């Protein structure tokens, strides 16, 4: 099949006949926490609910950002909706994924007969998310009814890199070519750097980095502006339907705003409701001349451009820091993808900041992640080398050394002194690993003669060097339980363990040396 042939669904936006390839991450549940609607439909339904229903229902906006840098994320984590009411994050995310899965099934059934086992699912996640967030998304997808064996996680900037490499004209990605991807989405910005290898596979040369500087920062600046102009009291008088209409009007203007086309002179016009127009005369406002023309607010061109200042400057500064690193000194191209890549302000700022590097905006840059994910689903091995985003190892015990180990780590097992919570390192953060590469085996023995199960506890840490699993930043990824029913050898039995990089997953294998049985588990880490 042609992996470049990707069809996208067009969502009705609720403004005239306008459609979009993307739907907002908005989701609505009823008072019993039962899923009701997603995307534009959720937005429209929520605004039409009577006030008493709005207080009882659950409405989440931009909920994907709740996973960013949440170090304590687990299946019981709760998140707040727009009114402060809480639901389990797992239920919110799995309901959203299930809606998209079911919608996709409906689209397929209208066109052809298919079997579920024919579908390979690819779920994209920001590269800068931590391991816990990636694992969480996999669990949410499985809870939504997706077969875990048919599910691959793709890092968003990696998917974008594959799209660019596949769709840019031939000769733009020669062997040895180093390029950067700046994926500026709605919430986060992911930046990666890759090098084209002899095998035509891509090697990651810098670990993914970035921050919460996406297009929603432009929205936040606009909302702050409205409060300054009209006052908080007037803003709170708006109905939810009026607020939604302003948000959607702003989104359209934001995407089409071109500072060059208007020569910095023409103001930007946005619809506002009567309650705001009425309040303008009663507020001091701000220095710029804000004018009302009919039912529209006229915003000076430079004022509108200032809404982009924070994310644009954050992105430029971050890329500048990365380019100073020796690993990307030879980079001669930057590809802007994601929703904010359409911004002429961001494009101009990047071109001005990096005159010695070609800045490219590929065709359909806003869909680069989606279309690249399809390519990744066909061939996940095309990213041949990745850099470990954490240090990975296992938790265990060793015989206690009074001259070396802290006394608070001392534990007594069957009359023998052990040091508990000892970290055994397999992979160091920043290490470049080939896809499919395995670490050397390490052997571990049970500490009890009658121990029939040995737990292999997998640990991750952002630190390069650590001694104990109680050190700051350590977090448990999961446990493999190795059954050892033959107790003949007592504590002289052994289990050998290794770690293998496969795609975006870290696979951990544990082998009972007596029986030869292999136990394995995979963790979404890279």
Automatic annotation (TrEMBL):
<dbReference type="GO" id="GO:0005524">
    <property type="term" value="F:ATP binding"/>
</dbReference>
<keyword id="KW-0346">Stress response</keyword>
<keyword id="KW-0067">ATP-binding</keyword>
<dbReference type="Pfam" id="PF00012">
    <property type="entry name" value="HSP70"/>
</dbReference>
<protein>
    <submittedName>
        <fullName>Heat shock 70 kDa protein</fullName>
    </submittedName>
</protein>
<dbReference type="InterPro" id="IPR043129">
    <property type="entry name" value="ATPase_NBD"/>
</dbReference>
<comment type="similarity">
    <text>Belongs to the heat shock protein 70 family.</text>
</comment>
<dbReference type="InterPro" id="IPR013126">
    <property type="entry name" value="Hsp_70_fam"/>
</dbReference>
<keyword id="KW-0547">Nucleotide-binding</keyword>
<dbReference type="GO" id="GO:0140662">
    <property type="term" value="F:ATP-dependent protein folding chaperone"/>
</dbReference>
